[in-house]
Input
Amino acid sequence: MVKPPLVIVGAGFTGLFTALHLRRHNHLHSIVLIDPQEKFSFKPLLYELLSGELAEDAICPTYESLLEGSDINFVQDRVTDIDLSGKTVVTQSGASYGYQHLVLAVGSVQGYRHTDGAEDHAFPFRSWDEGKRLERHLRDCLKRARAAADPAERQALLTTAIVGGGPSGVEMAATLADLLPYWYEKLGGDGQELRILLLNHGKDILSGDSNAHLRSAALRAFRSRRISIELLPQVAVTSVRKDQLTYSQADGTHPSTLPACTTIWTAGTELHPLIRQLGSQIPSEHLDHHGNPLVNSRLQLLDFPEVFAAGDCATVQGDPQPALAQVAYQQGTAIARNLIALAKGSQPQPAAVRLRGTLMKMGLGEGLANLFDKMIIESTAGGLIRTATYLELLPTPLRDFKATVHWLDEEIFSRTIHELQHRTSANERPALSPADRRARRQVQALAMLAPLAFLLATAFALRTPPAEQNLSPPQTTGTAPSPGSSTYP
Ligand SMILES: Cc1cc2nc3c(=O)[nH]c(=O)nc-3n(C[C@H](O)[C@H](O)[C@H](O)COP(=O)(O)OP(=O)(O)OC[C@H]3O[C@@H](n4cnc5c(N)ncnc54)[C@H](O)[C@@H]3O)c2cc1C
Output
């Protein structure tokens, strides 16, 4: 009898990397990987999708292209039910899959804190389609603002409110403060008419986050953006409409209305509905206070050891980890190792997760790199390290290599080295002004720093391990299900 497959629910950082790692290690068991999306979203680089700084198919490659040449059975569908005792997964299309092992990796969903109108009118920013939708909306607002005769209407179209002073809100504010004036000036508008407001419930941005000690550097970066970012601390947004939002002080006093045609919501995440449903099958003492299941150090559900869960939708008992891609990625790899161990009759091992610092985008071409909590690198150098690090992490080695080379070529050779050569040979040029001399020194420093940045990035990054550097299909005897079959015994 054919063994039921390994079913992986969710092909994000945890699920995709579990699958890739297994295949590279020639784990022969058949794998069904289920996700409703057509494309993987490399979330830390979604801002580059908005700004067009990196190629779309590098940040959000299709699963088809990522899994090409492997025998992983990718099913584009949404899992709607899981029966843990019956070991069955059911999808929206009505297909059902029995499993021997299950990997739960659905992440979390955007939370709106029950704010009136937020779900309907605010823009989330967590995936390729949400990124594209926001881009279309922002460009449309700028176009309409150019044509608007009424100054109040124009101002609302040119005002963007970002809700949430965590890392996503901060990175979004910094990106838009460079990007929107650029787009608007290309349409013939005056960039200084734009307003960007960052509304935060707490007193400080990045509070209680793994990026908290980057706060001063982030505020410094805010001050050097193309347009200023208005910070509204200690406020609670009470409603969102198509063309305005209302907020009050955090204690509920002083209600105000802000005319704004764009509200971007980055404040908080919520329990995934599928995980909420599973709550009835798991003893309540084995759920954390959000409702996510607790897993042991080997990332298995406490009551169902054949089920692994990790990333944003699970909490390691006694050792909770932050909701980060670098955690999810390492946990995915650990799950793969444990599945291989189980297949060989060995004991699964605790997943060791090492946090190696944090990276933030702080405007076009700029960033903050906190390396091993020991060193903070700001500005262009920080941006170089961030981008190089994430390009190293992109899941396909061929794509990874191409994207890295293309980006380094653009960024370092075209902009830096060529500029240096050009300037050095241009003896006939008039003497440089002090500002130009400073800029030139910066360019020279950058040219020297670039290889170092790349080395640092390589050391810092959770590199795509050699394990994932070749997706050639294993030499199996063919236990994988045929693409059409969706029900397993
Ligand atoms: C804008 C943004 C920027 C970020 N920047 C950083 C950063 O700079 N550094 C960092 O470390 N982390 C960052 N994060 C956090 C990081 O992306 C997450 O912690 C990480 O993606 C979690 O991985 P995961 O596998 O748990 O979930 P995800 O990567 O979210 O994957 C979940 C997958 O499950 C799929 N899914 C959902 N529902 C179902 C269903 N019913 N059936 C089947 N599949 C389903 C989804 O389509 C998705 O592909 C960022 C997040 C966002 C939103």
The chain has a mean pLDDT of 83. The radius of gyration is 24 Å. DSSP finds 14 helices and 22 strands in the chain. Residues 6-108+271-355 form a domain with the FAD/NAD(P)-binding domain fold (CATH 3.50.50.60).
